[in-house]
Specification:
By secondary structure, this protein is mainly beta. It is 9% helix and 39% strand.
Length: 263
């Protein structure tokens, strides 16, 4: 025998059900964003989803490879020729460090071309470029990594993780691969330039070139955060004009690069 509920009874029943479901629906919304670790590092990739990373689709990345999150890593598939992702969240412009691990899965060119801000200018750290061995910054005084004083030749093995740390201070830019310092550049009176179109790379972008690469443990922290070392030094975290994507080969672009002189 079916018993018909009155309108008032149905309303009370719905209210009771909502009261049970409300805590489940709001638990995710009420949780605060993850706080930086005690040492100041803030994760930019959680190993589960792209999050604030987006696939770059313009210019040399029109025929990009597949980008996916797999087994806790961010995989940039081999493109024709390039594949890149851009971070769309807030990011410091100066006085900061980036740390990540990168792997060349397959291919022979750079598996980490990281474009980053230097105040109102920008540079790209190339790891494994020019068919495999070149490490350096592009571009300095109009010279790409393979032609300026930051150029270093290093043998990179496929399917091996390399820890990369980049430190961007007002007076000096430094980088390490593992424990080896690979870049140590004073910034005074140097001109920093980025090749190709500037629309898709800031505040931070990571690219591969004719290569499949994998990334994990991408983190950032401000230099001297929470100490007297850096009080009053950090500029406001606001988007700046993006640079051009990483230089893929030793050829010069048809148009002069966008550049800024650091004084």
């Amino acid at each position: 025998m079916k018993v018909a509920l009155s309108n008032e009874g149905m309303i009370h029943m719905l209210i009771d059900k909502l009261a049970l479901l409300l805590p489940l629906l709001t638990v995710g919304l009420l949780q605060p964003a993850p706080a930086p670790a005690a040492d100041g590092w803030r994760a930019l990739f959680d190993g589960k989803q792209l999050g604030r990373w987006e696939v770059v689709k313009g210019f040399d990345f029109i025929h990009h490879g597949k980008v996916e999150v797999k087994d806790g890593t961010l995989v940039l598939g081999r493109g024709g020729p390039g594949t890149a992702v851009r971070f769309t969240g807030k990011f410091p412009k100066i006085d900061y460090e980036i740390s990540l691990e990168a792997m060349r899965v397959e291919g022979e060119d750079f598996f980490c071309g990281m474009t980053f801000p230097v105040g109102d200018a920008a540079l790209t750290l190339i790891v494994g470029g020019w068919r495999g061995p070149v490490v350096g910054l592009s571009c300095i005084d109009d010279e790409p990594a393979v032609e300026n004083e930051t150029c270093l030749f290093k043998d990179f093995k496929k399917k091996r993780w390399y820890h990369i740390r980049l430190r961007v201070a007002r007076e000096r830019i430094q980088a390490w691969i593992g424990k080896e310092k690979v870049v140590d550049l004073e910034t005074e009176d140097r001109k920093f330039s980025i090749w190709f179109e500037p629309e898709t790379a800031l505040p931070l972008a990571i690219a591969t070139w004719d290569t499949t690469g994998a990334l994990r443990n991408i983190r950032v922290r401000r230099i001297g955060e929470g100490t007297a070392e850096n009080k009053g030094k950090i500029q406001t975290e606001s988007p700046v004009q993006p640079p051009k994507p990483p230089v893929p080969s030793p050829r010069k672009a048809d148009n002069p690069p966008h550049h800024t002189t650091v004084r």
